[in-house]
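Quick one, probably user error.
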């Protein structure tokens, strides 16, 4: 009997408490956190090279936007969701249709959004 493989998630979030909450929610839902990054340069490197299945991207990382990370994920064909307190209006038009997880979010909203990826 084979053991189900957990989907691995890259979390890009600059608020430590939010990153911890996301990590806890992912684990409760049966996902594995591949990496957590709070800085754009590190997140870009992880997006290029790390092994993961999906990503959760905070749009604003210490005043820098995470759109270059999203572009790298698109190039790799990896699904992602934006997590933001600004809602869909924070998205550039090239990201129309990308799921947005509105902060603050609860476990049910999180589950629905992540499972749709």
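Nope, works fine. Designed sequence:
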């Amino acid at each position: 009997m084979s053991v189900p493989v957990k989907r691995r998630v890259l979390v890009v979030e600059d608020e430590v408490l939010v990153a911890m909450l996301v990590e806890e929610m992912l684990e409760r839902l049966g996902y594995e956190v591949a990496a957590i990054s709070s800085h754009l340069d590190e997140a870009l490197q992880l997006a290029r090279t790390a092994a993961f299945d999906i990503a959760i991207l905070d749009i604003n990382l210490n005043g820098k936007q995470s759109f270059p990370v999203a572009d790298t994920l698109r190039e790799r064909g990896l699904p992602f969701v934006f997590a933001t307190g600004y809602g869909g209006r924070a998205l550039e038009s090239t990201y129309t249709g990308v799921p947005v997880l509105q902060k603050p979010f609860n476990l049910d909203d999180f589950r629905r959004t992540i499972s749709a990826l």
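The chain has one domain: 15-115.
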